[in-house]
# Entry
Amino acid sequence: MRTLILVTLAFLGSALVVDRAWAQVTNSCVPVPATKLESFETNANVIILKTSTAIGSLAGNTGNLGIKCREVTDVSTGRKEQGLAIEVAQHGDLLIDYDEIPSLINAVDYLSKLDMSATKLNFLDASYTTKGGFRIAALASRRNGVLQFAVRDARSTLAPVVFSRDQMPQFSGLINLAKKTLDSARE
# Structure
């Protein structure tokens, strides 16, 4: 009987000392980089050289867009990638690889020409998204007939930067100037 009491007391005593166990984190994987420019961030034990040139900015109704040319180099191998870094207010830099720039230019040109004649329905929402999450959209309703443009990080819930149709040529011009700047750096 004495043994039974000692075993019971030992069991109860150990139950008081034991701390709760925490569940293991099962999603510890780092997301795969969406762009070639982002992939340099995963390189370890090497020097990564990032250079940029500011091209210009566009003031929207809800914030600013800053456009820069970006070049990233792995110093140990000499491997380079180029593209754009578009700073969207409060979102940070959204990276666009060099090989995505022509399709971005085509998308901006298409969205610039869009109007409500594209549909018989009441609302229009056309968008283009790059691999790195840069999203530009044209939004309109038949009721007010005003077409607005919004730029945001597709991977975020932060508010977009909104600008007017009159500002689209300036935005397009900045993207084209950035491409020409990168083209001359590649020669």
